[in-house]
Amino acid sequence: MLNIAIDGPGGAGKSTIARAVAAALGIVYVDTGALYRTIGLYVRRHDTDPTDEAAVAALLPGISLEIKYEEGSQQVYLNGERVGDAIRTPEMSHYASAVSVHPTVRTFLLDTQREIARRTAVIMDGRDIGTVILPEAQVKIFLTASPECRAQRRYLELCQKGITTTFEEVLAEMNARDARDSGRAVAPAVAAEDAVLFDNTGMDLEQSVAYVLDLVKEKTGITPPRG
């Protein structure tokens, strides 16, 4: 069963690249960050401090998460509600980062993510896929780019969705999240020892996807099916 893990900081293009690679290879794409964002959304709706682990843990029994693949893309459902772009705001980036440091939250999601990978060939992206979630993945990539490049990508993405912000705000939030994610005690966002470091600063989507597909072929012999 083919498992591909892509880790790295926000704005490096993990989700966009992983989605395109999944389509090319005919495998399932799992956006694990969306799961943490959804928990963050639930915490926000309950006016709970996301840094208070005990308070967040108390909310977990009331959360039911479901992943559905609709019209070729992953959709996350929170207690039966399709969350859509409500989890894609800068505020939810902050909440996702804050709740993701809690061992109770990570344990809550661990089995869900691994079970998906056991059932089908997948590509997952996140912060600790190659180190914690799928340590036996055949292909591991740590994807990064310069902070300015990543912030510009995220800023344009938010603007396209009609979310009002500034490049400076996005860059500041990204730098803050990088520090939190790489420095946390539980499952820090660092490259697995056997991961390939891929800096795609200045590269477009087509170039990045081609690089990953070449790496998959090199590691596994698998190439995209024709047609």
Mean pLDDT: 90
**How many strands?**
8
Strand content: 15-25%
Helical proportion, percent range? 40-55%
**Overall radius of gyration:** 17 Å
Helix tally?
9
| Overall form | globular
Question: Helix-strand pattern, N to C?
Answer: EHEHHEEEHHEHEHHEH
Biggest sheet descriptor? 5 strands, parallel
Low-confidence stretches: none
Largest sheet, order of strands side by side? 2-6-1-7-8
Structural class: alpha/beta
Query: CA-to-CA gap between the ends?
Result: 22 Å
Short characterization:
With 227 residues, the protein is an alpha/beta fold. The chain is built from 9 helices and 8 strands.
Verbal overview:
The chain is globular and about 50 Å long. By secondary structure, it is α/β, with parallel strands linked by helices. Helices cover 50% and strands 17% of the residues. The chain starts with a strand and ends in a 7-residue tail after the last helix. It has helices spanning 14-25, 32-45, 53-59, 90-100, 103-119, 129-133, 147-160, 167-183, 205-220; strands at 3-7, 28-31, 65-70, 73-78, 81-82, 122-126, 139-144, 196-199. The model has no long low-confidence stretch (mean pLDDT 90). The protein has a 5-stranded parallel β-sheet with strand order 2-6-1-7-8, sandwiched between helices. A 3-stranded antiparallel β-sheet has the order 3-4-5, with helices on one face.
Primary descriptors:
227 residues, five-stranded parallel sheet, 9 helices
SSE layout:
Layout: E1 3-7, H1 14-25, E2 28-31, H2 32-45, H3 53-59, E3 65-70, E4 73-78, E5 81-82, H4 90-100, H5 103-119, E6 122-126, H6 129-133, E7 139-144, H7 147-160, H8 167-183, E8 196-199, H9 205-220
Parallel strand pairs: 1-6, 1-7, 2-6, 7-8
Antiparallel strand pairs: 3-4, 4-5
